[in-house]
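pasting for the record
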Amino acid sequence: PGGIPSLLALDRLAMVTPGTPIRLYEDTSLSSREIGTIAEYETVEVTGGPYCAGGLVWWKVLSRNTGLGGYTLEGRDGAYWLRRL
């Protein structure tokens, strides 16, 4: 409840939208440790989720370029940071 309507799907590809790189976290919480970022326009594989925590929609993703993986938000406040391919 309270999260944005999800546009992603498990085991599908998504692209980081233009603007700001997405942040990856160890867990589905903004207070968990940040483990890196994935650049705008980069393609990710959606490997888990959706997870709803704190009114936010989280997905587990894996970068197709670097192999870096973790949890990230699909978006917030009506803005989407990941788009389904």
